[in-house]
Every structure is written in C-alpha cells, then in structure tokens.
Amino acid sequence: MTVQGFFSARTNAAAQSYAMPRIAVIGRGFSGMMMAIALLKTVRFPFHLQLFDPNSSVSGGQALASGHSSEILNSRVRDLSVSAGDPDDFNQWLSGNAPFRSAVPAAIPGFLQIFVPKSIFSDYVYQRFSEAFSSRRDVAVQVSSETVFGLRRVRGGRFVVESDGAVNAPFDMVVLATGYGITDQETQASDLVTVPTTVRARRLVSRPHTILLGSGLRVVDRLLQMRENGYTGQITIVSRRGFLPQSHTRNNADPVFPADEMPGNLSEIIRFIRKACGEAEANGQSWQSVMNGLRKHARSLWRSLPAGQKQQFNRHLRALYDSHRNRLPEALHVRLKQELAEGNTLLRRGHFMRRTPTGLVLRPAGRQETEQLYADDVIDCRCQAPDLNAPLLRSLIDTGLAVPDELGLGLAVEAAGALEVNGRTTEGLFAIGPLGLGSLPDIDLVPEIVTQAYAAAESVAERFHPQCKAV
Ligand SMILES: Cc1cc2nc3c(=O)[nH]c(=O)nc-3n(C[C@H](O)[C@H](O)[C@H](O)COP(=O)(O)OP(=O)(O)OC[C@H]3O[C@@H](n4cnc5c(N)ncnc54)[C@H](O)[C@@H]3O)c2cc1C
C-alpha cells in the first residue's frame, strides 16, 4: 500500500508548526511502523513525525513485504500483538475480520494459538497504524521516499538528516529502524513467485538444479514457494552448520523454566538448558516450552556473560539457538522433512567459498579440499547482519554518535533502544529492532520489537514533556 496520498492533506495542514518537536524514523519496515504506532499512542503532546524509506510501500519490511497468502508467519497470533499490555489485540482484530473468519474452520474458537499468513499480519499492523494516526489530529505525519545516508548533530543537540531528497529542518529525535538495510522489495517479492527456469550457463547437470544458500526461515520459505509454483528440479540447500528450523508443537508450549539459579558459564548454561528440556519432556511438556521460557531470561543471561563467551556463543552456538527459537509451524515442518526424505532436496553442510558462472564453490564440512557445485541458479537466502559500512551507520560511527556492539553485529544500544557510547546514552538517538541484536538477544523478533518501541516512545514522552507521560 503506498502512503503518500493518504498523508499529504494532513501533512500540509499540520506541518506548518515548526514549534512542535520533530521526530524522524528512518525505515518503514515492521520496526519503523511499530515505532510510529508507539509514538502516536504514547506521546501526548503535538509533534511532527517524518518517516523515511526509499520503498514507497508500508508493507512490513523484509519479513512481511514478500508475504503472499500462502506464506505463514512462524509466530503464533498470541505473540504478535502490537498493543502494549494487550496480548489479545491481534486475536480481537482477527475475530472482527469477516473474510478471515469465514476462511478458517468454524471449529477454531479463538485464534491465539494459530499461525496466520504474513499478508494478514501486515494488514493488521497497517490498520493499527492508520487508527492511531487518525485519532491524533494534533500530529503531523510526513512520508518521505528518501534514502538517508548520514546524520549530523548540530547546535542545540538536534540532528540534520542527510538524504537523497529535499533538505529537511533539523530533528529533535531520530529513530533508526533500518533493520537489515535497503532491499529492493519489488524484486524480492517477484523473485519468490518466479520459478528460476532460465539456464544462466550451459547446463552441466542433467536436470534443473537450484542452490539455496542459508538455513533459516528464508530458505524454507523459498523452498516451499518454489515447489508450490511448480519447480520440480533438484534443490540443494548449502548451509555452514546445517541447522534447519525446528518445529513448533501442536500444543501451546506455554513458557516453563527451572527456578534454580542459572550457572554463570556458557558450557554449564548449555548443560542446564539441556537438562531442563529433558525434564520438561519427561513431565509431558516440551523442549519448546523451555525455549519459550528461556527467552524471558535471555536478556539478563546475555548481560552476565563475559565478552569472550558471547563471542564463543556467536561463533559456535548462534545457528543452533536460532534453529530452536525461529520455529516452523508443524505442518510446514512436515513438508520440509518430506522434501528432504524424498531426496529431491538435499542439505549440504559446508563453507560457501564463491559464486562461479556455473554455480558455486563449496568446502564441505570437515574437509580441506573444495568442490564445484553446478547449478542453473544460486539464490542467497542467508540472513545477513546489518551492514555497519552502510553510509548511514558509517556516518554515526565515524562521528562518535554510535559504536558497534561488542560482537560487531550492530550498534550498541540499551533496552529502550537508546544508542550507547562508552556506557553513556546518546541523547535523542534510538535504534529499534535488529540493529541491536549484538546488545539484546531476540530483538529481531516481533514481541521484543514491540516492547522496545513502547519503551523508546516513553523516553521521548519524558524528554519533551516530563510532567505529561503516556496516554
Ligand atoms: C522471512 C522472515 C520471517 C520472519 N518471521 C517472523 C515471525 O514469524 N515472528 C517474528 O517475531 N519475527 C519474524 N521475523 C523477524 C522480524 O519480523 C524481523 O526481524 C523484523 O520484521 C525486522 O523489521 P525491521 O523493520 O527492523 O527491518 P527490515 O524489515 O529490514 O526493514 C528495514 C527498512 O528500512 C529501510 N532502510 C534501510 N536503510 C535505510 C536508509 N539508509 N534510509 C532509509 N530507509 C532505509 C529499508 O528499505 C526497509 O524497508 C521474520 C523475518 C524474516 C526475514
């Protein structure tokens, strides 16, 4: 959905007032839209909100933009509410949505435990944003289809946003919600529905062959989409560690976690979690419940680990952890297992060395020598960390407004997203969502982003109007 038309009238009328605090949100993916909702619902005084993103649609960024009806989100409805303190909000929205209601079996009484297509979640987020905006006649919202390539602090602690568009007046507050960086969403969406039939080089294998690089949710999405669209060729998944997403359970997997004190060292923590999973299974619960419980402790646990152990976790355990936290709905997991069992899809563990005109070069796990894999197409489905050399992030780091986190995965932030430099927060500057992944575990997931966005909005409210906080 494009947004320029929707906003222009209100923008023109309200943007006259330069006395209002000016807030810039850079990125209109899920984190950016969530931040806008949180600001509109939390900050009571009038303000000017400008949303920057070269992608002209409000479609939910990387996770949701490509969503078409067959693509299912991997979180249950109960974990996807965008309303602070009301986990039932998405369920309520679905219940009031007549086309959705008529499409699901009447036997399902409520929707809290089910999985829904990405496109529906995207509609829900957009509607909650529109409602929050409509209820605030005192707020001016401006949508700019511009790429931001720098931020400069000027007198009075305000920020000049440098973009490839018009020159803007300085902002009092800037929220970075640039997630995984700029992607061409048009291409991304159409890639998913186009079966790669073009033979890019002389075929060196007897039948069509596509290589998918990566092992996370994107690989599974792409694999199942290709099959749904009729691709019958061979597919090889090339993954460094080979951990594909695990399955959700049929039951609710409500969080459980032992009350005992957690050990302070990584290998003992792993033993502790393994034991907890074993005990849960023995008691008729599931390891998934323990993983859900662990998420509630992850932040304090992460904070307590020394830098060396965090690095060890990142190098050796992150892929395994991700495969257990980013789980597939059971039905999709069954389809993935069938694919692998039938032999038409292979999983190869190894280190991707380089692309070649006829495929790629792989160093298989545990071997020294490399191997050429021939393929008609190689599709990169790896989830890359934010690029700290992207011009915007580079400008922040070079001018001392931000520093990389200790793992170099993103920027150092505190829980509410305020940027941290040498233990002190940078006044007026926030990073919401995956940019904070090296500082805050699971901050790339919806519930954590929602909590962080509301916490950041509270800080904004307090900064500009200490005596008048949340609505
Ligand atoms: C396939 C997939 C499935 C997922 N499923 C789930 C799920 O089921 N449950 C769950 O909790 N989480 C899920 N996630 C994770 C989660 O939803 C994402 O981490 C989250 O949506 C991140 O959103 P974002 O807005 O921070 O980043 P992005 O989606 O990367 O959006 C960033 C936006 O910023 C813009 N931008 C970047 N740089 C600039 C710049 N310099 N100037 C202007 N604009 C810029 C980009 O154009 C983009 O639109 C999934 C993620 C993926 C990829």
Bound molecules: flavin-adenine dinucleotide
Report helical residue fraction: 25-40%
Q: Write down the CATH class of the largest domain.
A: Alpha Beta
Task: State the fourth-level CATH superfamily of the largest domain.
Answer: FAD/NAD(P)-binding domain
Low-confidence stretches: 12-16, 185-202
CATH architectural label of the largest domain: 3-Layer(bba) Sandwich
Task: Tell me about this structure.
The protein is an alpha/beta fold and 471 residues long. The chain has three domains: 4-181 and 386-464, FAD/NAD(P)-binding domain (3-Layer(bba) Sandwich), CATH 3.50.50; 185-246 and 327-380, 3-Layer(bba) Sandwich (FAD/NAD(P)-binding domain); 266-325, no CATH class. The protein is built from 14 helices and 14 strands. The protein has a six-stranded mixed beta sheet. The chain has a six-stranded mixed beta sheet with strand order 11-10-9-8-7-12. A two-stranded antiparallel sheet has the order 4-5. Strand 7 (209-213), helix 8 and strand 8 (234-239) form a beta-alpha-beta unit. Helix 2 (30-42) packs across helix 14. The chain is globular, with a radius of gyration of 23 Å. Residues 12-16 and 185-202 have low confidence and may be disordered. The structure holds flavin-adenine dinucleotide (FAD). Flavin-adenine dinucleotide (FAD) is lined by residues 26-32, 52-55, 61-63, 73-75, 147-148, 177-182, 217-218, 221, 392, 433-434, 444-446. Flavin-adenine dinucleotide binds at residues 26-32, 52-55, 61-63, 73-75, 147-148, 177-182, 217-218, 221, 392, 433-434, 444-446. Pfam families: NAD_binding_9. This is FAD-dependent urate hydroxylase HpyO/Asp monooxygenase CreE-like FAD/NAD(P)-binding domain-containing protein. It comes from Rhizobium lusitanum.
